[in-house]
Amino acid sequence: MNRRTTAALALTVSAGLALTACSGTKPAPGSGSGAAAGAFDPVQIGKGFKGKGGNVNVLMSADFQTLDPGNSNYVQTANVGQLYYRTLTMAKETAGQPPKVVPDLATDLGKASKDGLTWTYTLKKGLKFENGKPITAKDIKYGVERTYARDVYTQAPQELNSALADDGYKGPYSDGDLKSIDTPDDRTVVFHLKQPFAEFPALVSRSNTAPVPKAKDTKLDYTNHPVSSGPYKIKSYERGRSMKLVRNDAWDPATDPNRTALPDTFTFSLSTAQATISQQLLADSDPNAVTLDSAGGLQASDAAKLNTPEVTKRTAAGLLGCTDVLNLNTETIKDRDVRKAIALAIDRKAIQLQYGGNRFGKIAQSYINPSQRGYVKQHTDLDATGKPKLAEAKKLLDGKKVPKKLVYGYADATARYKNVGTTLQQNLKKLGIELELRPIPAANYYTVLAGDHMPDIARSGWCGGADSGSVRTTVDPNVGPSLDGKTYGFSNIPRYHDPKVSADIYELRGANGSSEELGKKWATLFDRVMQDQPLVPLVRNFTNSVVGSKVRNAQVGYFFGAIDLSIVGVER
Hints:
GO terms for molecular function: peptide transmembrane transporter activity. With 572 residues, the protein is of the alpha+beta class.
């Protein structure tokens, strides 16, 4: 659930817009330079609220890319998914901190064999689907099996699958039973790994392990009504327009200490213009409203209103584990020095302004961040303030065959990403490179990046350590090799594959040790990867999200980048 969706529109800011606090008012969280202590501290609204009932209105500018837990690598789906599906374990959010992995459908975090190759989970008693039928171990297994059918589910998360022993399995529709998972009885699930995996409990918090009843599997149509195992179920869903969730009476709160399930209903508006979302939230015209749109749905013209007292008291905020990067296609930009020159020439400070300036994030020097376990300081030639190093870039290109033209692909629903492209055009022109801006339909963006039409340069985002706080959960998916180690991996957008470094990454997958020890090894390997410059870190995000005056328990999820729906409530 790490890949940041591009479906939601985000804040667009001109380079000349001032985002510091107005004279005479207290600076909003994250405003100013961001260097001062506490500038990126989390802010929660109505913490500790326990009142049940009411409705939460969720305003969104676009529909979910999918609601199928077996076909999702998107944080918006993961956020709303907490309401209607459960997994063996769960990455429980705390504002401003990496999530903590806790038991969910399982009684504990699992029991490993001495050799680390087998993990066993026992399901809690009393678990039921929305139709009242018991959730069994076979339903968990079938949920995992579906994610292997990559010909059907193109965005299925693959980290769990890469750890299991069945490399050649193609899913239940063609290959039948998955041998690496045993279900000796209705409450026991046994995973067989090809190599030890110290943080396996984090892997089974992914949506792969959401139970799916085989009889209800409608393949791609399952997104229209996934069968609920959580506190809410889908009452109605009109794609691109609206959705309503109501209580799932078969859900037993005694089995689920992680979700408060306070509201009676959640109503989703899936086609509200982002300017309207921003205006409604700032004006408090709907006191029960929140948004899942990135950057809190705010518009550039509305940014200064965050500093007004009546809005400040309704603004949840937090520094995310999410970092945006530019991926440099290593299959088309093959020369490492050319990639390094491009990275050095980019004005990342100007790009930060397109994100909203310091109020909405700080310039990143790495894809991994100091909050992740095992982090070690990364070496980089990039300027810490984001300024370009044009002279150094040009020097690297001496005697090199420099491409005359490159293509930057961006999600067409988000003006910010097009504006980033305009900045890149200006930067690369100074290297003699013409940059074409090519829009990609937002709903298909990551599918295109994973396919044959990957552009030369493309932005993406990843929420580091979202599952466990581990460095591995950023490094392996984004620059690691395929399941067999022979080529680049599924989520490896820059298509990075170096014979020596990728082989070392593949070997490290099977290493034993503490999370801290292994994290340092992963961070050190990533440092080696970055000497080849397959990507350019841009901004680590800080989100301000205004909520309605009756909304309580509003916190910005560390990797959701939006209000955490699992604990929110409304005053009645």
